[in-house]
Amino acid sequence: MTEQSPQLADSVLMIRPVRFESNPLTAESNRFQGRSAMSMEGQQRQALGEFDGLVAALRGAGIGVVVVDDTMEPHTPDSIFPNNWVSFHADGRVVLYPMEAENRRTERREDIIEELVDRHGFQVTEIVDLSHHERAGQHLEGTGSMVLDRVNHIAYACLSSRTQLEPLGDFAQRLDYDVVAFDAVDRDGVPIYHTNVVMSLGEELAVICDAAIRRVEQRSAVLQSLANTGHDILTLSYDQLEAFAGNMLELRARDGRRLVAMSQQAYESLTEKQLQRLQANGGLVVANIDTIETSAGGSVRCMLAEIHLPRSKVPETEPRKSGP
Fold first, then answer.
1. Residue 258, beta-bridge partner list
2. CB neighbour list of residue 83: distance below 8 Å, 6 or more residues apart
């Protein structure tokens, strides 16, 4: 196994939207999106305000936020969700992922990785490019498709058209992860598009809508794996899953405190007892992102690509790239 990574990041990458709107190419597999009646201009205006509010809330709580502006062309309506195309790891590796929707594939921008190195002092040792799986119609959308236990090198993954076994196995082999794969469905029995809608994994606390895992043996395997790794489990209902309560993310503030970031909708769906358990675990960072959730079908966790890369005093040269 590679060197152990901390579970929590103290810095995140966020992409400021310029042409945000509900993406018609992702609607079929994401039943959480597309409920906005606003024009594209209205969606963009509202989403930009919500984005800036979340950035301010995170920075105010002590999280490092690297903000990069999206580009007008090509049109990438979901660029606000960078955790689907890239993940950053404590050994300096950066992983690029195969995306299902064609208009999401151009979200992958190596200039952003170069900026993290040149302007922000992060160290990149290797780029692991898994995007070639798109040619075979195989997809794995980053830490949307996988919820990573970075300490124990376990990747939890609910299978869907966006999360498939071949690229999942490729990721696991290259980064030395074990996989806990399962099927998760919404209350109507439709596969849930991303694992990070179903569950969130922090340092000690795991939040999960285990009712969505209907096969008893799979549910038992997931819960047993979480218990074996010492996680306390907070269970969500379907109503709370639909309010994006599973799409929270635990982070580490610069002063060492644990923080959990979530949307206002997710926060309001939780019971007083659940909130007390979360607050006993760490502070809460809450932001209203109603338009982003309604239009695009993703929430706070989807907007944050955790930066686990080591810091480098001397900027690295262009990282080498591995792939076929």
1. 252
2. 142, 143, 144, 196, 301, 302, 303, 304, 305, 306
In a domain, 4, yes or no: no
Structure tokens at 192: 């849930």
The answer to the question of residue 5 being in a domain is no
- Pull the structure tokens for residue 258: 């644990």
Number of domains in the chain: 1
CATH assignment at residue 130: 3.75.10.10
Q: Are strands 320-322 and 126-129 parallel, antiparallel or unpaired?
A: parallel
pLDDT digits (tens, 9 = 90+) for 227-263: 999 999 999 999 999 999 999 999 999 999 999 999 9
For residue 216, the surrounding DSSP H or E stretch is helix 216-228
Domain membership flag for residue 165: yes
> Domain range for residue 73?
11-322
**Lowest-confidence range among 34-43, 158-167, 172-181?**
34-43
Find, among 246, 249, 285, 286, the residue nearest to 264 by Cα: 286
